[in-house]
């Protein structure tokens, strides 16, 4: 099985799980903990209302196996056959339990524009700034003929549509879209396949647009989240979105990495928690860079920044000398999406390949401060369900309710 | 009773409450709701672990009467006798129930520096920019000899110490400090009077400093809060601070204005919730400006900004053309605390007096989006306790616990 950058495959990390019979060494939670059950979790047939977003099939499958809902991020897949291969693997390694797919499909469609057209829109001055910044840190070039492994082209509608052509052949239960509502025909197609459609929202206004577009689930993603975020923090955003789209179910995203935080998200009215960052340093994840894993494990909650450096839209990520260079008022500044992503794609590949520490970063939320050791998905999941239980018990005591006996 | 700017007095708003016998028209919650009880709430002798910070004695007293813990902000009191008069009033109107005081005492002491010395440090260019910005909006001057009503001098240690000389004569149960830990002798003095000391923290590091300084309670104030804030959102900050200062009690602040949000804060490990913004539009509050109240009621969660415009340190407030002027890269920028506060004091008075809408603002958190009507403190308090109950019930159901019957 050929490795794809940023994706960890069965053959590499799941060697002991060669047959699906061996996938479930013990029933999750051994029956000790009750499920975390909401209307949405029941609808999706999932034991715990914990949704895990990850670019790694091995992580997504492990989340689903643990009793959560694994959501595979598709943005890094350029070739449809690579996505097909990984969805094959996911399906084999989730034993019939539900999982989903996350695509990045822009709400605004630009007709007939190719990647080459978009590349041509990038000013020379910005290309020079990329090279100067890399040169300042002595970042080597890629080898002659070596392709840039790191590309985010999945947000171009053409690419996302190719992904969907593949995805609907697999038993996905949820299709999430990271940028705006998906086009109407995609929503219809998903519904025809019995697939729920989710969309991320950073404000109540966005969430209302999604609801009007006919989506089924809103992921309210707060300021503290990794990746693309708005400025409203989860504590305020989640109940605003819950109110705005009632009775649609809402997932709380942003700042969640413990069971207590899951409980907080649910207390705010969400029907589940959506966690992304926390899986980046799991044993099943494969960032292809020990230096990056080490940076994530060392980073505190104050070591991220909301920057346009990576995609052209504000996305929370590790603060690095790379983000500083793009956020520097004396630099050329960033380009709009999708130009910025194309502009920096090869540079990011070079930084990652040669592990140039001061420039090395990744999208991650403020919860990075809690990511201090590499652990299995199952261990983190057990912490989440136990922490949730503890929080609910404690709240019950504070409210003067008798403990369950 | 002479009115002090920004402070609402008994004689103005509590006319029907002339005698303390009439202050408790009905027992709070009529015995329907159980208390919201934590170790800290028991220690302070308060029914519900809801702490309300406010510059208005009438609001603080109403919070305490409702079964919460009212904390009066002292920063606007320049004259000790004004503070004494309002603490007299508070004591009479809380019927023996506990309340606290919030001062702003900088951690760093500057020996022998007077207000005049500090005034002299302000560059002329900044004074010119103030006048130009006011002129652009046609803001009239104050009348001849009219004093600037809006001054924030309480953060000068001398002023804060005068406040403390007054405060310890009253039965305050908690002394909170908004900027760093109070000096060691103040902590000792508070403890000698049986007064707990709280300090606000925007990061786990700040919180650890407070704990080492010997304070008793940490208020973990998230990014979404009104007033001085850091960059870490409550969802991430609260559990970090809880872990950092264990076993000291932590209050969750920032983004809290509903009972569901109180539940979320407590789920994160806090022993209570600390609410400030939500009281600004209560019937008992007196902003001395209908235009400002109207702006607050109309503002959404996205209409605030974390700006240095008011004090020189980042403080969340309504975004206005005044904050825009100071955050404008082509302007002179802000001065460090306490210079900025002194620089803008008279200007803010003029803007407030003449209610110049585009410039009119106030510190407030992202929860401002939930402040859509003027209500009594008791009505808000009832919402908080009922919403908390609802959230705890719902979490119990999600966790598979049977409802209280």
UniProtKB/TrEMBL annotation, chains A, B:
<keyword id="KW-0288">FMN</keyword>
<dbReference type="GO" id="GO:0051213">
    <property type="term" value="F:dioxygenase activity"/>
</dbReference>
<feature type="compositionally biased region" description="Polar residues">
    <location>
        <begin position="11"/>
        <end position="22"/>
    </location>
</feature>
<keyword id="KW-0285">Flavoprotein</keyword>
<protein>
    <submittedName>
        <fullName>2-nitropropane dioxygenase</fullName>
    </submittedName>
</protein>
<dbReference type="Pfam" id="PF03060">
    <property type="entry name" value="NMO"/>
</dbReference>
<dbReference type="InterPro" id="IPR004136">
    <property type="entry name" value="NMO"/>
</dbReference>
<dbReference type="InterPro" id="IPR013785">
    <property type="entry name" value="Aldolase_TIM"/>
</dbReference>
<keyword id="KW-0223">Dioxygenase</keyword>
<feature type="region of interest" description="Disordered">
    <location>
        <begin position="1"/>
        <end position="28"/>
    </location>
</feature>
<keyword id="KW-0560">Oxidoreductase</keyword>
């Amino acid at each position: 099985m050929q490795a794809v950058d940023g994706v960890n495959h069965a053959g590499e990390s799941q060697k002991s799980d060669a047959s699906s019979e061996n996938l479930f060494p013990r029933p999750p939670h051994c029956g000790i903990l009750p499920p975390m059950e909401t209307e949405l979790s029941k609808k999706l047939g999932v034991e715990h209302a914990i949704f895990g977003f990850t670019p790694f099939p091995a992580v997504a499958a492990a989340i689903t196996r643990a009793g959560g809902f694994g959501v595979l991020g598709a943005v890094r897949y350029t070739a449809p056959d690579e996505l097909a291969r990984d969805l094959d693997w996911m399906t084999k390694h989730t034993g019939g339990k539900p999982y989903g797919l996350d695509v990045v499909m822009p709400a605004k469609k630009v007709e007939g524009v190719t990647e080459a057209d978009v590349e041509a829109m990038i000013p020379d001055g910005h290309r020079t700034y990329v090279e100067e910044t890399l040169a300042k840190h002595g970042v080597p070039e890629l080898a002659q003929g070596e392709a840039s492994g790191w590309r985010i082209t999945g947000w171009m509608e053409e690419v996302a549509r190719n992904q969907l052509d593949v995805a609907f052949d697999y038993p996905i239960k949820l299709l999430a879209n990271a940028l705006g509502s998906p086009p109407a025909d995609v929503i219809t197609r998903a519904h025809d396949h019995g697939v729920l459609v989710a969309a991320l929202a950073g404000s109540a206004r966005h969430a209302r647009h999604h609801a009007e577009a006919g989506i089924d689930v809103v992921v309210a993603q707060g300021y503290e989240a990794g990746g693309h975020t708005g400025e409203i923090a989860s504590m305020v955003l989640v109940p605003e979105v819950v109110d705005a789209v009632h009775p649609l179910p809402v997932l709380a995203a942003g700042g969640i990495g413990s069971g207590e935080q899951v409980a907080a998200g649910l207390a705010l009215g969400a029907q589940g928690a959506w966690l992304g960052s926390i899986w980046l340093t799991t044993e099943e994840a494969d960032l292809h860079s020990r230096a990056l894993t080490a940076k994530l494990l060392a980073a505190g909650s104050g070591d991220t920044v909301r920057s346009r450096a990576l995609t052209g839209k504000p996305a929370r990520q590790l603060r690095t000398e790379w983000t500083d260079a793009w956020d520097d008022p004396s630099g050329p500044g960033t380009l709009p999406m999708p130009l910025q992503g194309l502009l920096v794609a090869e540079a990011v590949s070079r930084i990652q390949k040669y592990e140039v520490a001061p420039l090395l970063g990744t999208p991650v939320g403020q919860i990075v401060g809690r990511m201090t050791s590499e652990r299995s998905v199952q261990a983190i999941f057990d912490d989440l369900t136990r922490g949730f239980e503890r929080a609910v018990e404690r709240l019950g005591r504070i409210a003067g309710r008798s403990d369950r006996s």
